[in-house]
Amino acid sequence: MFLIYCHPHCIVTFSKEILTCIENIILGIVTSLSKDEAPILALPNRSSWANIRCDITPKTVLNVSDNINRFYLFLFQAQIVKILSVIYRLVQSNSYATKRDIYYSNTQLFGSQSAVDSIVDDISCMLKVPRRSLHVLATSKGLISGDLCYMEEDGTRIDCYSSSTAAAVSSNIAGIRNIVSSAKFVLIVEKDATFQRLLDDDFCTKLSPCIMITGKGVPDVNSRLMVRKLWDTLHIPVFALVDADPHGIEIMCIYKYGSVAMSFEAHSLTVPSVMWLGLLPSDLQRLRVPEDALIPLTKRDESKLSSLLKRPYLTSQPDWQREMELMQQTKVKAEIQSLAAIAPDFLTNTYLPNKLRYGGWV
Questions:
Q1: Phi-psi region of 9 (alpha: psi -120 to 50; beta: other; left: phi over 0)
Q2: Is 104 one of the catalytic residues?
């Protein structure tokens, strides 16, 4: 039985090396078939928390473990070869395609969009390169607004400075250049509804220049890459505004620590300095949010909360642990919109300004 893999020293950075790696994989397949053997792909386990290591000193540094010692085997499929051939042509011609484009190139072969998504991530992990280096883009769902201008790879100038509209997050973050901003911080907003409310209230200019971004719930890769790009370029604080519930906390953790599904690429997708601005479980008591605005935790919520508390990266975040343990004790959660029960404009005119002015984050 022939195991097909990319040479361990083939940590590719340039297009030529990516092409060479793909050629080696195809050569292995052909060699296996010539011997009447069933080709097998040996791939690292890309979906494991073991792939992520948090350095406590300094605790804001996040690395991917060099020792991913759990492997799994994929029986050779025509789907993988097809996508490898598409990637080869894209890299060779220096052109790009979306995962959606790849799926519609042969819907019968792939069966579903999720199959394409998974295989592209497997190939990225196998070649040890970010997915964007394969010239495969994902359609963005995120929005961004505030004190920010930049140039897209095709030369389009994007101006995010508007009180009434937001720009779509680019599908090619790596191609962004000439970033100009005088923002004092970046605010990650969990939900589109909250983002639109802050946009309507012209939040980005009321307190101080800032940049707001939302992934509309669980963030797509491009929204995460954009936050990372801004952090790398502007060197300003990054805050998260999420619901005081296990789902909101997990979304914030995806921006800060990564997701298990993309753990192999966490080092380039995360912003380890993300700070939890709100809504904190302790805020619910401190602000005396009316009880009828609070929601009891479900069994599923409690299970999710317990799971989060067991994540290895939370050992370096005792303040986050205390907030989550308080949620466990009180057995209630709340959406950001619950602050409207105090006053309709409480979020924009009181809560966020005071949080940012007096350091009310953890």
A1: alpha
A2: yes
Q: Is the pLDDT of residue 60 over 50?
A: no
Contacts of 40 (CB under 8 A, 6+ apart): 1, 2, 3, 4, 32, 73, 74, 75, 76
Which of the following is catalytic: 88, 96, 103, 104? Answer: 104
* Topology (CATH level 3) of domain 143-358: Dna Topoisomerase Vi A Subunit; Chain: A, domain 2 (3.40.1360)
**What residue ranges of the chain are covered by domains with CATH 1.10.10.10?**
3-39+76-137
Q: What is the pTM of this model?
A: 0.77
Phi and psi of 245, rounded to 5°?
Answer: -150, 165
**Banded pLDDT at 14 (limits 50, 70, 90):** low
Of 3.40.50.2000, 1.25.40.10, 1.10.10.10, 3.90.1150.10, the CATH number of 3-39+76-137 is 1.10.10.10
Dihedral sign computed on CA atoms, order 280, 283, 289, 295? positive
Instruction: Provide the sign of the torsion angle of the four alpha carbons 160, 356, 195, 305, taken in this order.
Output: positive
- Alpha-carbon span 282 to 360, nearest angstrom: 11
Q: How far apart are CA 94 and CA 4, in angstroms?
A: 26
Count CB-CB contacts under 10 A for residue 203. Answer: 23
- The string over 277-294, giving b where at least 16 C-beta atoms fall within 10 Å of a residue's C-beta and e elsewhere, is bbbbbbbbeebebeeebb
pLDDT digits (tens, 9 = 90+) for 246-284: 999 999 999 999 877 666 667 778 899 999 998 999 999
